[in-house]
Prior knowledge:
Blueprint: E1 2-11, E2 14-24, E3 29-34, H1 40-47, E4 55-60, E5 64-67, H2 79-89, H3 94-107, H4 123-135, E6 141-145, H5 153-168, E7 172-176, H6 181-185, E8 189-194, E9 197-203, H7 204-208, E10 213-219, E11 223-228, H8 231-241, E12 246-252, H9 256-265
Parallel strand pairs: 3-7, 3-8, 5-6, 6-7
Antiparallel strand pairs: 1-2, 1-4, 8-9, 10-11, 10-12
Helix pairs in contact: 2-3, 2-4, 4-5
Amino acid sequence: MLSANGLIKRYGDIAALDGFDLRVEAGEIAGLVGHNGAGKTTFFDIAAGLIRPDAGDVAITGEVGMAPQQLALYPSVTVRETLRLFGGLAGLRGRALTAAIDATAEELALTGVLDRRVGVLSGGQQRRTQAAAALLPRPGVLLLDEPTAGADPETRAALLAAVRRRADDGATVVYCTHYLPELAELRATVAVARDGRVIARGTGADLLKGLPGEVRVVLDDDEITITTADPTAALADLLRDLDRPVRGIDIRQPSLDDLYRELSHAA
Ligand SMILES: Nc1ncnc2c1ncn2[C@@H]1O[C@H](COP(=O)(O)OP(=O)(O)OP(=O)(O)O)[C@@H](O)[C@H]1O
């Protein structure tokens, strides 16, 4: 469990966090989204104990594992040595450590590069190594800051599956991303940050309720477009009353992108 209450962090005139509240339960993945500068990284640094807030506190059950946005790896050591270091810091030794390294490398598709130096890996492999370092000790709380940035589709899928498994095993996960479809894939709840606060919190479905989607019906010489919160129902109504042949149908359900846009533009 993680519970941040009333966090405030100022840098001169800038309030990086300005009353930031967030509660995430064990087994939950909370997707933290928001503009550049909304305060996501500052929140992570405070939750991980790297910096102190000016006010407020974060309560955490268990250890914290963090994969920061900036790669923080030693280029001259191998992937295996990297994982050995992070596992060792978390108290893993001997056979337990070796088994954890093998299992984590396997789930993040790093087995083939375990004995290569981090500095010669591709960007995606380095990012997976960083995620592996955070995931390996199986911390109770995982803070992941855009771990799939620059990842190819296979890497992305492996990472998302590994994160989902950790939550299924009971970890509390906060997952920062600018790529909203990932949150649906992770079955994450959503927290939208803006100007140092969480301004919307809930399941994707809750937050999307009432936002407009669109249904477009293409006829022989005409086209009908309806903007509505329930495009499927609008389509059913339309088709019931329509006496002309339909050439094409296009439905766009409201998405997290719509929510993000709406909240970002709200005063
Ligand atoms: N050490 C610092 N000194 C001065 N200002 C800072 C410092 N760290 C963060 N800030 C400012 O605080 C605000 C929040 O920054 P933060 O990095 O937390 O945002 P973010 O939501 O993580 O952004 P991004 O999506 O770009 O990663 C920004 O305006 C940033 O410039």
